Amino acid sequence: MPVTGWQNRPLDAVCTIVYPDCIVLKVRQDSRVINKSVFLAPGINIEGQKELPGMWLAENEGAKFWLHVLTELKNRGLNDILIACVDGLKGFPDAINAVYPQARVQLCVVHMVRNSLQSAVRLLEGLQSRHP
What's the stated role of this polypeptide (predicted)? Predict the structure, then answer.
């Protein structure tokens, strides 16, 4: 199957969990090397199998771009996502719920730990300033 056929193939109606994320790669464009974000939305189908519905290129990550990706997935037949495990990108939960209003949005463990550590540091700094 050609890449365009794979990228545009029909999708299963339900995905139990989706992990939308991106990786940044260095890509040669013309005579220079630039950063390109490769957006991925791997997931687990209702049979418990891993799936990758597609890959998308962009110069940076944003909720608006994810809204476009999620709309494409919906148009290709993915009618329901049960859980979306996301990073802390501002507006990401709103983008997901705009396309999949019943989806439960969960912050991934790495970002939960990172946010907890940042909160703990702020708390300790506040305690130190009150008790030098």
Answer: Required for the transposition of the insertion element.
Query: Residue 67, Cβ neighbours under 10 Å: how many?
Result: 17
**Both tokens of residue 132?**
């030098």
Is residue 22 within 8 Å of 61, Cβ to Cβ? yes
pTM attached to this predicted model? 0.77
Long-range contacts of 116-124, Cβ-Cβ distance < 8 Å, separation of 24 or more: none
Characterize 90-107 residue by residue with b for buried, 16 or more Cβ atoms within 10 angstroms of its Cβ, and e for exposed.
Answer: eebbebbeebbeebebeb
The domain spans of the chain are 3-107
100-125 pLDDT, tens digit per residue, is 999 999 987 665 556 666 766 676 67
